[in-house]
């Protein structure tokens, strides 16, 4: 089969489109002919040199295709739970940026609704992550206000879709007016340019006192404004820190406002099922930014790393 492999750490130039051995399923696995796979920041981190990942490695957590020898359209859950531990496809085992993959039967699901292969490949990891953040951890309720930083990212766009599906009102931010306009088309109630607008003041004005829930995976660059923009007894949910993990703590703001700071990462099979059910019911839908052929994975990585996308970058697999 053809696949995208990395043999060494580095930039997009280390990606190799080459032949790899066809995977062989064991008794509890199925062979999937992939039709589409998406990119996540996890792929960039592994490519740059996550020390726990052996190489060569086929990247890619998310994928959709057909079970080999059938016409059954399926999508995979990339968070495989085994022996009480979670193993992410493309990190602890070869991933989806290939023509074929084997997966445990319990982590293979029919493509929900009328999604295309590309849309199906765009939702699993980020929707599972966003669902856990908003529902399992933050307990988001209908009518509440959510502030989402950096709407271009996959988790942020998934959080927007899930929040609206749950009846919340959403303020998103970006430094790109074009992305803000697109987010409004996707259902955001307000968009703020965080490079130009006074985000804290505008959020307080729009929400009548501050956001009930703030989704922050940015870290140092946004943390002070996150704590200020949350209303008293608000919830701040964190799944990453792309600008650095050590912001000024300013702990007095946490106790004065009685804020809840909630850490969240990936999700459980129940979180995946919750996100899956919203999509199957037509209440939420993944956003595809751009589709590249598998052989052009380098260009896809360059777009992701440059932060040019809104939604998910997808690889089509012939």
Key traits:
seven-stranded mixed sheet; Quinone Oxidoreductase, Chain A, domain 1; 10 helices; single chain; 2 domains; six-stranded parallel sheet; globular; alpha/beta; 318 residues
What is the compact description of this entry?
By secondary structure, the protein is of the alpha/beta class. Helix content is 29%, strand content 29%. It has 10 helices and 18 strands.
Secondary-structure map:
Layout: E1 2-6, E2 15-19, E3 29-38, H1 41-48, E4 57-58, E5 62-67, E6 73-76, E7 79-82, E8 85-88, E9 100-104, E10 108-110, H2 117-122, H3 124-137, E11 145-148, H4 154-165, E12 169-174, H5 177-185, E13 190-193, H6 199-207, E14 211-216, H7 223-229, E15 230-238, H8 251-256, E16 260-263, H9 269-280, E17 288-293, H10 297-306, E18 312-316
Parallel strand pairs: 11-12, 11-14, 12-13, 14-15, 15-16, 17-18
Antiparallel strand pairs: 1-2, 1-4, 3-5, 3-9, 3-18, 5-6, 6-10, 7-8
Helix pairs in contact: 3-4, 3-9, 6-7
Specify the number of helices.
10
Number of domains: 2
Mass-distribution shape: globular
CATH superfamily of the largest domain: Medium-chain alcohol dehydrogenases, catalytic domain
Q: What is the CA-CA span between the terminal residues?
A: 11 Å
SSE-based structural type: alpha/beta
Rg: 19 Å
Helix proportion of residues, in percent? 25-40%
Share of residues in strands: 25-35%
pLDDT average, as an integer?
A: 96
Tell me what you see in this structure.
The protein is an alpha/beta fold. The chain has two domains: 2-123 and 286-316, Alpha-Beta Complex (Quinone Oxidoreductase, Chain A, domain 1); 126-263, Rossmann fold, CATH 3.40.50. Helices cover 29% and strands 29% of the residues. The strands form four sheets. Strands 3, 5, 6, 9, 10, 17 and 18 form a seven-stranded mixed β-sheet that branches. A six-stranded parallel β-sheet has the order 13-12-11-14-15-16, sandwiched between helices. A three-stranded antiparallel β-sheet has the order 2-1-4, with no helix packed on it. The mean pLDDT is 96.
């Amino acid at each position: 089969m053809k696949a995208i492999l990395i043999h060494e750490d580095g930039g997009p130039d280390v990606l190799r489109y080459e032949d790899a051995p066809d995977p062989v399923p064991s008794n509890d696995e199925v062979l999937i002919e992939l039709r589409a796979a998406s990119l996540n920041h996890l792929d960039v981190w592994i490519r740059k040199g996550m020390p726990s990942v052996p190489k060569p490695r086929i990247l890619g957590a998310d994928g959709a295709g057909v079970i080999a020898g059938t016409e059954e359209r399926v999508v995979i859950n990339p968070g495989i739970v085994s022996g009480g531990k979670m193993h992410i496809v493309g990190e602890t085992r070869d991933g989806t940026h290939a023509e074929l993959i084997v997966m445990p039967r319990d982590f293979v699901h029919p493509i929900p609704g009328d999604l295309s292969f590309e849309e199906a490949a765009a939702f699993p990891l980020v929707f599972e992550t966003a669902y856990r953040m908003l529902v399992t951890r933050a307990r988001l309720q209908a009518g509440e206000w959510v502030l989402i930083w950096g709407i271009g990212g996959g988790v942020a766009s998934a959080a927007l879709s899930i929040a609206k599906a749950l009846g919340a009102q959403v303020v998103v931010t970006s430094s790109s007016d074009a992305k803000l306009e697109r987010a409004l088309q996707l259902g955001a109630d307000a968009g703020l340019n965080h490079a130009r607008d006074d985000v804290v003041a505008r959020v307080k004005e729009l929400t009548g006192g501050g956001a009930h829930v703030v989704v922050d995976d940015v870290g140092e660059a946004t943390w002070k404004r996150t704590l200020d923009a949350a209303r008293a007894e608000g919830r701040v949910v964190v799944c990453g820190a792309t600008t650095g993990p050590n912001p000024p703590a300013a702990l007095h703001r946490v106790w004065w406002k009685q804020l809840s700071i909630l850490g969240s990462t990936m999700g459980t099979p129940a979180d995946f099922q919750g996100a899956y059910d919203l999509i199957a019911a037509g209440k939420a839908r993944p956003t595809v930014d751009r589709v590249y052929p598998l052989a052009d994975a380098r260009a896809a990585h360059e777009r992701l790393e440059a932060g040019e996308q809104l939604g998910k970058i997808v690889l089509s697999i012939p």
